[in-house]
Amino acid sequence: MRKNILIFFCFFLFVDISLANAINEKTKSLEENKRIQEQLNKKLEDLASDILNGEKSLKDLSLQIESLNSQTSKLEASAKAQNQELNTLTSQNEDLLKSKSNMEGKLISLMAKDFAYDLPIPQGYIESEESFMAFEILGSLNKVLNEEIFKISKDYEGVSRLIDDKQAQIKKINESLKDYNAQLAKLQSLKQKQISEINKQKTDRAIYAKKLDDLQAQQEELRKTLNQLKIIDDKEDANSNKNDAKVVKNNQKIRQLGSSYQGSSVKRYTGKKTIAPLDSFTVKQKFGNYIDPVYNLKIFNENVVLRSNKSDAVVKNVLDGKIVFAKDTSMLARVVIVEHDNGIHTIYAHLDKIAPNIKVGKNIKKGAVVGRIKNDLTFEVTQKNFHINPLELISLN
After folding, report:
1. What's the count of helices (H) and strands (E) in the chain, helices before strands?
2. For the CA atoms of 65, 69, 75, 78, what is the dihedral angle to 10 degrees?
3. Residue 381 β-bridge partners
4. Predicted confidence band at 252 (pLDDT cuts at 50, 70, 90)?
5. Of 2, 314, 343, 373, which sits with the fewest C-beta atoms within 10 Å of its C-beta?
């Protein structure tokens, strides 16, 4: 019966440990997934900054590990010798403690005898020649005993000092070994941290490369749409696509994005400012040239990405105009393009929903609802074959 209870207990103990390990792994996985989601939502330049900081952290860790490896190697040889010395000292100490114990026994025995020889003469004791001889013998014995007690006491004192010295040496060696073990633990911890950082770097670089690739694919799709609507000229689009075709290989295929696009197709907006498409937002991605610090690529952003300060935010049309495009796309989610006076077009991409009254060919007023976004709005402005910085058109107040 007891055996069955023990087996039953061991089974549940094993299940508890396995469950605890599984929960721990699940927690780590959830934490990493949360971190990845945060990285996916970051600005491109912030993610690049994380990657560069991660690389610096890895270099620092490598230097620390190298230094600790060197220190540990030196300590290891010393620790080996000290362990041997510790065993020798411990053995010697055991022998000394035995000697000390034997000396204590001898001292007690000798002192007892000395005490017996020093007992007073009993009353009625008759002096005689024999008694004088007995006293002489006792005196000699007492002297011998005192000398032996003195010698053993001196030896005992010396052994005690030796034991104390050995104990001090043992303590010193143990402290040194403790430092060595602490260094080993620190080294192991740094190596684990290094592995974790390397894995984070791999993930962040993959996310970053995907963002760059998506950015190009989105810009290509938007250019194609603008070309089909005759908003951007065929020749200009062909030139920019030619520039985009350059391939850079650095862990993954990263394509350069329109590096010569700015010189021929960007103009400054000098007209009156208008309303912003979102009520409350921050600029997640700026317009214009961006030097990618990770792969050292020159990227040209033809639009801005505005992050709403609240989810499911309303997107508003910024100028009176006419809707020329409104539909789902493969890379840009839902897109609405509005044509305005003076050859201006505004593009609203990555919409989560398009307002039900938005129809191609329909006129739309400034401030009218175009649709809704979850978080980010890609906003682009063109004027007669030129790209305009959208932040020059809208008020940021």
Report:
1. 6, 15
2. 180
3. 346, 388
4. very low
5. 2
